[in-house]
Amino acid sequence: MNYVEELRKIVGHRPLILVGSVVLIIDEKKRILLQKRKTTHYGAWGLPGGLMELGESTEETAKREIFEETGLTVGKLNLIDVFSGADNFLKLSNGDEFYSVTIAYYTENISGDIKMDEMESLELKFISLDELPKNMVKSHRKIIDSFLSKRRV
């Protein structure tokens, strides 16, 4: 059982503040890796990542989540920004509510072969930045837009 599941046993569905990390992974063709989600935001495209466990840094969270969801190992992470506030409120289908504090990174330093976790993803795909899908997690699109506005690619 993970930290959030343990916490939910105590507080039920009440709103929580949860910290997570996502990573904008850029390949050699300057495409980004998107995940068609199977859990939160079912069927929408988003960035791979997830919630922090006790004792982890946000960088450790990012690297662990990327490996778990994609099979890829990431090296140096570069901060895009921190995203929080009322726009990051979620109410899940099971009634759980939370405000997400998301630390967003980007990297071009990846190794390994993609091995999708079928419990969390419907599909993983490198997509050109000028061909982003319309059905995206709203907060993840905001992260990508912030990244692009800084002209990092």
TrEMBL record:
Q: Which domain of life is it from?
A: Bacteria
Name the cofactor(s) required for activity, per the record.
Answer: Mg(2+)
What is a single molecular function from GO for this protein?
Answer: hydrolase activity
Q: Which UniProt keywords apply?
A: Hydrolase
Q: Which residues form the Nudix hydrolase domain?
A: 15-150
One Pfam family in the UniProt entry: NUDIX
**InterPro entries xref list:** NUDIX_hydrolase_CS, NUDIX_hydrolase_dom
UniProt cross-references to PANTHER family, sorted A to Z:
8-OXO-DGTP DIPHOSPHATASE-RELATED, GDP-MANNOSE MANNOSYL HYDROLASE
Q: What is this protein called?
A: NUDIX hydrolase
Classification from the root reads: Bacteria, Bacillati, Bacillota, Clostridia, Eubacteriales
